[in-house]
């Protein structure tokens, strides 16, 4: 008689990454690419195991924050629970604006959710210990809720933001305009984002935070003299490092909202 394999034990041992996708779809796909590309592996079997649940029906996060749209939290919670049921050990939501809600969402989910913004700030402090000013490119929802400003203020780093007019005409139009990133037009978006990036650098930004995960789809490091810092790639690298360690050794590698 064949010995029955206990699937639950295998899932616990493997530590599977759960990715809430569709926020937006191309950005979450890019995050998964980082998990593959940045993991040193000599064979298929040495790569990470992850579950990417792409749910583009999650309502727009910024529109809700600005009082113009449907609440995205129920769909994010549903997506997290689907990943939990599928066997994920922890969750990444590669949408920076969603971090406005994730502490609250964590209360409805039994597996931990990663705090990408804390990972970002820690990485900036470790790699650029003398930095005093960072430029923030993010959605108006993120800026309204001060998620970047508060995190950087806590470590005495000044956040330089676009003016209200620049935010609307250059950043939000590049993301949400009829010819913007969400509509699949990267050339239109790139021109606008390059303009605002140069403006922030002239105002003293020593690095630029790509604070909306879709911005990294168009802006590239080779085009600028200051570092472009991508929370998605930094988080992917932290996940890779986290999963190298035994569970008892991982407590300080990744900040979860459950901690």
The number of helical elements comes to 11
CATH topology of the largest domain: Rossmann fold
Q: What structural category arises from helix and sheet content?
A: alpha/beta
Q: Give the helices and strands as they follow along the chain.
A: HEHEHHEHHEHHEHHEEH
**How do the strands of the widest beta sheet line up side by side?**
5-4-6-7
Share of helix among residues?
A: 40-55%
| Mean pLDDT metric | 91
Q: Give the termini distance in whole angstroms.
A: 44 Å
Q: Please give the CATH architecture of the largest domain.
A: 3-Layer(aba) Sandwich
| Number of E-state strands | 7
Short description:
The protein is an alpha/beta fold and 259 residues long. It is built from eleven helices and seven strands.
Please explain how this structure is put together:
The strands form two sheets. The chain has a four-stranded parallel sheet with strand order 5-4-6-7. With 259 residues, it is α/β, with parallel strands linked by helices. It is built from eleven helices and seven strands. Helix 2 (25-37) crosses helix 11 (231-244) and helix 6 (116-127) packs across helix 11. Residues 7-11 have low confidence and may be disordered. 44% of the residues lie in helices and 10% in strands. The protein has helices at residues 7-14, 25-37, 61-65, 73-86, 102-106, 116-127, 140-144, 147-154, 164-176, 186-202, 231-244, and strands at residues 17-21, 50-54, 90-92, 133-137, 158-160, 208-210, 228-229.
């Amino acid at each position: 008689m064949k010995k029955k394999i206990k699937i639950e034990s295998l899932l616990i041992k493997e530590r599977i990454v759960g990715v809430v996708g569709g926020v937006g779809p191309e950005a979450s796909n890019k995050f998964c690419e980082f998990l593959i590309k940045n993991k040193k592996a000599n064979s298929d079997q040495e790569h990470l195991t992850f579950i990417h649940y792409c749910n583009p029906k999650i309502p727009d996060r910024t529109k809700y924050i600005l009082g113009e749209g449907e609440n995205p939290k129920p769909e994010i919670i549903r997506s997290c629970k689907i990943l939990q049921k599928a066997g994920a050990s922890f969750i990444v939501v590669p949408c920076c604006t969603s971090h406005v809600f994730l502490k609250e969402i964590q209360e409805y989910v039994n597996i931990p959710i990663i705090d990408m913004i804390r990972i970002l700030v820690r990485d900036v402090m470790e790699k650029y210990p003398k930095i005093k000013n960072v430029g923030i490119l993010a959605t108006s929802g993120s800026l309204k809720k001060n998620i970047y400003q508060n995190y950087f203020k806590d470590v005495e780093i000044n956040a330089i933001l676009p003016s209200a007019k620049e935010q609307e005409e250059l950043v939000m139009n590049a993301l949400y305009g009829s010819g913007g990133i969400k509509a699949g037009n990267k050339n239109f978006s790139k021109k606008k984002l390059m303009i605002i990036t140069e403006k922030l650098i002239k105002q003293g930004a020593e690095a630029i935070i790509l604070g909306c995960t879709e911005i990294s789809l168009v802006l590239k490091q080779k085009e600028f003299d200051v570092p472009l810092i991508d929370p998605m790639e930094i988080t992917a690298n932290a996940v890779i490092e986290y999963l190298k360690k035994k569970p008892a050794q991982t407590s300080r590698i990744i900040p979860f909202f459950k901690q």
